Amino acid sequence: MRKFSCIALKIFSIYLFIRVIMYIYMSTGLFIALIEQPDMYSIPEILFSLVPVVIYLLFSSVLWFYSEQISKFIVKEDNEIAFNSSFDFDKFQQISFSIVGVVFLIIGISGMAKYGIKMLIIYHHGLYRGAYIDLIPEIIVFFIKTVFGIWLLIGSKGIVCSLKKAFSGIENNSNE
């Protein structure tokens, strides 16, 4: 099971690294504008605009290089995967929920950082209050994703047990 978890984390690490490359590609216009008009943005604004890409790169590196340790956290007891009658689908579901939790957690943290930085830039420039207020719902959405990710990561065993009880109740009602 740990191997499955480790592979999934490495795949997500590659996805995050691709996001880093896309961010750099899409930011080339900003870099060209900075070269042509160096006074357009302040140094803190430039540094803050790099925070999301740094977060993605950091998480990508951590997931790649520490995927085995993270897998040990997600999968407490290691079992070999053999798709037969003794395969533990509950454990498989717990691992799946935990990995989805890691995805939501990273997306939530990077999104909150991105929109938090935008709010700081708007505040720094004294732009109209409406622009500042428009970002608050975005931050709330990413906060909810972060909390949801933590819940999926930590509470995967409880989620699987609850789903199992709910579906066993549905099966019992349909058989009657």
UniProtKB/TrEMBL annotation:
Keywords: Membrane, Transmembrane, Transmembrane helix. It comes from the Bacteria. The chain crosses the membrane at residues 12-34, 46-66, 95-115, 135-154. This is Uncharacterized protein. It comes from Anoxybacter fermentans.
